[in-house]
Design goal:
It comes from Mycolicibacterium frederiksbergense. Helices cover 22% and strands 35% of the residues.
């Protein structure tokens, strides 16, 4: 499955913010729980840090949904 490209304004974005921006979750509180439960992967590896810095080209998955960080 091809990821959806989600443009960001800056050179990087935190994982918790990106999940919300990409509409993978509804709120910041959801970000905390899905990350803590190990449901989020970055570039194919489970990521447990909500503050993980993402850069263009990084791919985030949650369940069967994929989103890729793109230049804004």
């Amino acid at each position: 499955m091809e990821p959806d490209d989600v443009p960001i304004r800056d050179d990087s974005i935190r994982l918790g913010q990106f999940l919300k921006l990409a509409s993978l979750i509804d709120s910041g509180a959801d970000a905390k729980s899905v990350i803590a439960e190990g449901l989020v992967s970055v570039n194919g590896e489970v990521e447990l840090r909500r503050g993980r810095q993402l850069h263009p080209g990084d791919t985030v998955s949650l369940g069967d949904r994929l989103a890729r960080v793109a230049h804004g």
